[in-house]
Write a structure and sequence with these properties.
Two copies of one chain form a homodimer. The first copy, chain A, has 20 helices and two strands. With 592 residues, chain A is mostly helical. In chain A, strands 1-2 form a two-stranded antiparallel ribbon. The interface between A and B is large, with 89 and 89 residues. Chains A, B: It is a multi-pass membrane protein.
Chain lengths: 592, 592
């Protein structure tokens, strides 16, 4: 193994001076110029590029297979892709085994932990998604058993291996994802990046299967509505089902896909952070055990729950109505847009209030190196592009279309709001993540010297006479902000006889003590509200509510092929954006 | 302007304590919670996200127009896109004017310069490309004059504005691109990112026009070869040319496109670095005036020139042959692949030797923050993906194809080598850019104390008796490494009576004096060779040598639509990769 030592023909720098002089033969001296070592001091940047390029190429091999599969005339069949995926998963399982065994043996193998990576709620969420993926594997096995006679064995082996892979991967994530690897760096890098890109490929595979399913449904709807020049791809294998459950399995699969897709993309993000951490020294401060305070949470959860409930109603109504006549389809699409506009308006408002609160209390941002946070910000920014592109296309289509459907301008408004909402939400989340943490402890510590500086500025006797007010403010920190406005007149009267103090300095301090708590409460409500709204906006497209296919406006401007390609590429990004926002907003909620 | 101060309704933190207490009215006190300022302390990260999102959306608006244009049934016409581009360019010109005027008035406007950004050779290269872009604008105006009666005025206005834009932009780049802006940060950020994305849009526009031109040529060739179910898009406007020069202009344009495309993408990269630099404190060391030494450059330039010359021969032969019969097309494609394999083999070899040299002399890498270098590395990595995808698709196509064309396995070999070559070249360039600079001064400075430590370790008289040897080594630094092997025996005899010295220590030192120079010479030759090879590999696809369209293998596996889409997306990335490698290799050449 290249990792373990130095290639035999080469000399280490250290031994060089003595060995060169003590050995008299000339040949060895000529070799001296080739003192090459691939070990300890192999530069980190190179190892990063080396393994990163490997990972990208892995992804591209898989992508080329998927592209070939999407062309009907190709000699590439599904089993080829599945075989590739199976072998990649097996390789990953082997590497994880090696890692666990190695770590068990060697105590100095991992010296540090990155406490920011893979928080417990994230790992919990992943386990839940993994569980649903396992159910999906069971469905797939059931489906294979029914059609065994005419399906390739790869279709049967794949879910088995996938289940093993899922279980071992979740185990790995629970116990090792926080590790900051410092030995065997290059080999570890290859292993982790292999895992990242294997999961990305599984994500791509899921996304493409789901897109196919949606396109088929869409085409069938168009056929029902009278379009004839469309061929629907055959979904069922060409033999009879030997059990009675095949249709249940294939129907159930389509509802489980979204969870499986989110599972794989989340795992690859978490593992990518682990990869970035290899060989790093964590310079940022560790998360203190933040206590999740939930007092004062009223408006956010209530409004959010209303949003979530109405979303489910809209989803059910939409799915029922859209398959019917052209008229009821129109009303379904209109309903969706109206609902979306209201929802997005509230989300924009919440995000703007959050940003205004941040502006009113300019805490310096924390620019220390933190791969996990940087990735969060980059992903929010990057995946928003998908839905921005769709929205701009919709806007252009509405402007340029000749026929005027009823929901034309509502579509315009909706698309514009999607763009603005993502713009504001990104700003809000990213600033929240980068703000230096304000724990209530910090507030207290910082305010104490300020109070004493006041006493020093005036006279000690004056200060002690106001101790009562200050202490009350301290003890009732949470209540003060509520009682502040009613107390204001009393306070003003109290100040009237102390003109020797710097003007208003005490009123400032009491406010500073009180404010963070009020601010924080509003921010927490906003985070919860946005959290639930983002879940809602994930549910809708994930379970079949895609008016982009059903309104027909964009197809008139971009043509069927281009528009379905745009939606097929942009929709998974949009779904991931929503899920990632949900995860990030949970972080925001913990932090503020 | 938000930039210039504080919004009127809001209070600054500083003034707050006094103003709140001195004003007795209650309303103002309630406002106190809204002390919002958008000025000085507006966090840098937010300004980055704010302007970055603006830029991305600008690009997406343009992209959606381009996508609509590519569908024939759309109501969007070319003049709409041109109008957008014209207004964006005008906006950028206005901003640049503001910047120049502002900088002229205020001396403290820009306090720092980033010496690594926009090196003079880069600016020189850009000016050259800009000059060709200006010629292209002249051609476009000529073309418009010919077809004036049936073309939209936008087609005539566009080249005029583009010419003004080009001139003012080159002026801006020459005198201001190194600026590290520290005041008006947020406004400046918007201006610079607007410029970045305007240029990216102009790049996209150029790429799409070029792709259309290529596809039309390709279709016409297919028609000539007997394929009938293909419709060729009409390139000519629907009226007669009023001058005699229209066909010259339209023909000339197709040869000038590649330069215009490279011009815009390079400008956006350079401006992006400027954007990244805003508000930064440059922590990395400034470039000393590196003297470009050219002694010892023999093998690299000679081999590179041979490669370049043969490339031009191959290009001419290919273009002549490929339009002929099916047989001569086959021989043209085979010739291209054979030539490519030889070329890429040599490039792989050169890159590997470079990497081995780096491994034999592990200099620590420089990880200090340097936006320009980080972007270079990211771009090399990111743009390589395009051609990797094409290559993997080709490999898959060759493996899975049923019919066996003569050049099937040569295509396989070629594609594999493309992947490996980019892999190695990226490693080589990125490591070169990250290595701490070894100037010859450093070598000398470092060696002197080592020599004296030897004298101290033994006796002074011994050391002085070897002054002759050491001084000679100093004076003939460049010659020593050549004469070292022949002198070895003499030296050994010389040492034989000085056993009191540590074994071989002097032979080590003389070697250390000599080695960097020898290593550096080999590295310089490699850099020059790769530089010329990358130019060659840029020329071929830029001027019409695209066997991906002409071999027919991939179309059989992926279908015409998917494959042309892949090539259309991946080819501009590949072209940019080659040009960017050329620029980076020039940097490598200066550094090693």
């Amino acid at each position: 193994m290249v990792e373990q030592g130095v290639l035999d023909i080469m000399y280490l720098n250290k031994n060089n001076s003595s060995s060169a002089a003590s050995s008299p033969d000339k040949e060895k001296k000529n070799f001296d110029n080739l003192k090459i070592s691939f070990t300890d001091d192999y530069p980190k940047k190179n190892a990063e590029i080396l393994s990163g390029q490997y990972g990208i190429n892995l992804l591209l091999v898989g992508l080329s297979l998927m592209l070939a599969l999407s062309y009907s005339g190709s000699a590439v069949k599904e089993e080829h892709l599945l075989s590739l995926l199976i072998s990649l998963m097996l390789l990953q399982i082997t590497w994880m085994l090696w890692y666990i065994v190695r770590k068990g043996r060697q105590t100095c193998f991992v010296s540090e932990k990155d406490s920011d990576a893979g928080t417990s709620w994230l790992r919990g969420g992943l386990s839940l998604l993994a569980l649903i993926s396992l159910i999906m594997d069971a469905f797939r096995i059931g489906y294979y058993v029914g059609y065994k006679t005419c399906l390739s064995p790869a279709v049967g082996v794949y879910p088995v291996i996938h289940a093993v892979h899922t279980i071992s991967q979740v185990h790995f994530l629970w116990f090792h994802v926080k590790d900051v690897i410092k030995t065997f760096e290059t080999f570890a890098r290859f292993g982790v990046i292999h895992a990242v890109f294997t999961n990305l490929l599984l994500w791509c595979n899921g996304v493409i299967s789901e897109a196919k399913h949606f396109l088929d449904t869409h085409k069938r709807r168009l056929l029902d509505l009278g379009y004839t020049n469309i061929t629907v791809g055959e979904e069922e294998p060409c033999c009879n089902c030997t059990t009675n459950t095949c249709s249940i399995f294939s129907h159930g699969l389509s509802y489980l896909y979204p969870f499986n897709i989110e599972y794989h993309i989340f795992v690859s993000v978490v593992l990518f952070v682990m990869w970035k951490n290899i060989g790093h020294t964590t310079e940022y401060q560790r998360n203190q055990n933040v206590v999740m305070r939930t007092n004062g949470l009223v408006a956010g959860p209530i409004l959010g729950t209303i949003a979530l409930a109405s979303t489910i109603v809209v989803l059910v109504l939409y799915i029922i109505k859209v398959g019917d006549s052209a008229e009821s389809r129109e009303s379904a699409v209109t309903m969706f847009y109206c609902y979306g506009i209201v929802m997005l308006l509230f989300m924009c408002l919440a995000g703007s209030v959050g940003l205004l609160i941040f502006r009113s209390d300019n805490v310096p941002l924390d620019y220390s190196k933190n791969p996990s946070r940087k990735l969060d910000a980059d992903l929010l920014f990057g995946t928003a592009i998908g839905s921005w592109l769709m929205s701009w296309c919709s806007i252009l289509a509405v402007i340029s279309i000749k026929s005027r459907p009823v929901y034309g301008w509502i579509n315009f408004m909706y698309s514009l709001l999607v763009i603005i909402e993502k713009y504001i939400q990104n700003l809000f989340i990213i600033e929240s993540l980068y703000r230096k943490q304000e724990t209530s402890e910090r507030d207290e510590v910082e305010t104490i010297p300020e109070i004493y500086s006041v006493s020093a500025g005036s006279s000690l006797s004056l200060a002690s006479s106001y101790n009562g007010i200050i202490n009350r403010a301290f003890e009732n920190q949470d209540k003060v902000c509520v009682s502040l406005e009613t107390d204001q007149e009393i306070n003003n009267q109290g100040y009237s006889h102390t003109r020797s103090l710097p003007e208003g300095s005490i009123s400032l301090h009491t406010r500073r003590l009180a404010k963070p708590s009020k601010r924080r409460r509003v921010l927490k409500n906003i985070a919860v509200f946005l959290f639930l709204c983002n879940i809602s906006l994930w549910i809708l497209p994930a379970f079949g509510c895609r008016p982009q296919f059903d309104n027909g406006i964009e197809e008139e401007t971009f043509g069927y092929t281009i528009w379905t390609t745009i939606v097929t590429v942009a929709m998974p990004l949009n779904l991931f954006y929503r899920m990632h926002s949900v995860a990030s907003l949970l972080d925001v909620f913990r932090k503020v």
